[in-house]
Specification:
With 753 residues, the protein is of the alpha/beta class. The chain has helices at 7-39, 48-71, 78-92, 111-131, 133-142, 154-177, 180-206, 229-255, 261-278, 287-307, 313-337, 345-370, 376-384, 396-399, 402-414, 422-429, 431-448, 453-469, 535-547, 580-587, 594-598, 609-612, 641-650, 669-677, 740-752, and strands spanning 476-482, 485-491, 497-502, 505-511, 552-556, 572-577, 605-606, 621-626, 651-660, 682-688, 700-706, 721-724.
Length: 753
Amino acid sequence: MISEPSASRNRLVLAVYTAAIFVSALLLFSVQPLFTKMVLPRLGGSPAVWSVAMVFFQSLLLGGYAYAHFLMQARNRTIPVAVHLALLAVAMLTMPLSIASGWGDPPNSGYALWLLGLFAVSIGLPFFALAANNPLLQAWFVRTGHPNGPDPYFLYASSNVGSFLALLSYPVLLEPMFTLRMQNLIWTGGYALLIVLIATCGVLLLRSPVRAAELNLAPDDSDVPAPSWILRARWIFLAAVPSGLLIAVTAHISTDVAAAPLLWVLPLSLYLLTWVLVFQSRPLLPHKWMLLAQPLAIAGIVVLLAFGGEQNLLLTLGGHQFCFFVIAMACHGELARTRPAAKYLTGFYVALSFGGMVGGLFAGLIAPFTFSWVAEYPILLALAALCRPTGGERLPRWSAWYWPFLAVLAVALIAPAWSTGKTFNWFEDHRVWVIGAVGVLAALLALALNANRWKIFATVVVALVLLRAYPSDDGRVETVRSFFGVHKIVVTPNGQYHVLMHGTTIHGAEKFKNDDGTPVTGQPEPITYYYRDGGIGQAITAIRERKGAPLRVAVIGLGSGTLACASEPGEDWKFFEIDQTMVDTARDPKYFTYIQVCEPNMQPVIGDARLTFAREPDGVYDLIIVDAYSSDAIPVHLATEEAMEIYKSKLAPQGAVVMHVSNRHLELSSVVVGIADANDLKSWVYSEDSGRDSEYIFSTSVVVSAREETDVGKLASSEQWALTEARDNQRVWTDDYSNVLGAVWRRLRKGEE
């Protein structure tokens, strides 16, 4: 006779298991931004670091789920408990977390594979152990005899609440309040607490009155047939699409703001929130509502991609993420609706994690090496339409005519892209309305006619093809893609300017034709942010005049090579660039001629400047120019107290550091002033509107830092340059501490003034 568990014991079991799963998820998802931030300086702060990290995390999540599934095949309950506790204990020996020795400098190529290896060697074991906890503890819970055992999926919601809070608290609380070292120690303490909780879960399982052969299943569960392979494939697809979209939308928004945990965790937090909501016993947002909203969300992203929105931070961040949330809710809601009986729980989670890995591999590894532009975002957006369930169409007689109608519409809209003249110009002028109308048509199909998902998919594809056929850039566009992002070379109408863009930010431009159409001859004139009477140009001139002799200059960041033409005969200019494709683009005379004309023998140093520039001899440079932008972001590790210490050590006795901090979304001038002050340097800030943006001459914000006023020459007495003190109430950025959220907030406040 088997005694029934007491009510008090049931409460204890529920509390301990919920706490263990919650803490495990908290640790699992807080380690992601924590460790990735440690790795960022190795690869120039590239947003791709997070994309590859996500692939690693999703792959190891699959490994953990498969391990849990295999472990629970054992008939003896003691074996899973003993094996998993041993794994947790061994993983504890690798803490506190750190980058494994021997992985200091990345190679010159194959960054993604190198990065995966670094993650595997450094945190693979503890992450693997954490990844297995969610399905493993749920399977244990089923076997404890608890009344809620037959449907343990509510614990998955608890897990994702922990994950959601971990990610949301990182940029808001942990990053602004604690150094990386302190975050690491807190995380290690949490891991030790988790081992105690899981050991308690194991004891409760082993003392359970339910025999191993008598699983705590609902009466009708024991004879439920195994899920079909078609259903399993559907689960994988439903998990893969939002997983890939997560990486795609993260890359889209972080490219234009900053490669920082703040912008990584926002989409991932929403992604996890969808899991929390769909696996509730009574979902706060009913699944049918999400299915109705999903086509509107798809249309919303189509419109956002057509419209741009790069000038509006809230539109860029909020619009894409809200639509992503709705799409993920619809996909994950389908998974929750079709979930199997508890008997097949671990297999279900293996399918989910496998789908997550497939989506991550596509968006994080395959797409960057396959496409020369960010094609994964629209591709996954179109596939999201196929995540809708099947259903009877309304007005079937009329819907049969939709395919020929769509074919005619597609030809009528796309054909002008291969022509010139008034028709093409009309489409160019009305592209947002045309593309938006096709996206809205897809939504109306879904809502009004409950159309077949393939029709919705095909309509969305037409809208996305129109995005490529009629690009927002005014002129001919070529794209170059690398691990560090997508660069566009835009040739303006009539070939007057060649413009280098990364994301939505101009890196440089060159004028090839005069206003009358004749070719520009002679040495190219530096424009965009580098014109001679702008902040950077003034700084170069002032230091040159102060020295009265040829300069020795180091430039971190190459761009289109514009600054090559700021040099004068007899001077020694050395460039440091992390992205070889950037060097190849700047050298190609069909794109830009700055290097060919002004520095034909240039040999840029390839690699992250924190590593390569640190190897330069001390005390030799009269001027160091830091211009290492990735779209509208600056790699955080190049704007820290330790980075400035390196720059200072390389300066000649009267040298100066010039940092270009123009940014639409981050206020960085005070950051540079702070790190300079921490190194006993004085700083002058230049921030003035050029008033000539139409000529590719832009407003610039520049900070020059030096030991004494005399070192910056006439800048010290210029009204355009303000000697600026460090703010007492603003914490200095270090390799161990940065606060991107604060920089965003200061920029928003400045915009309101």
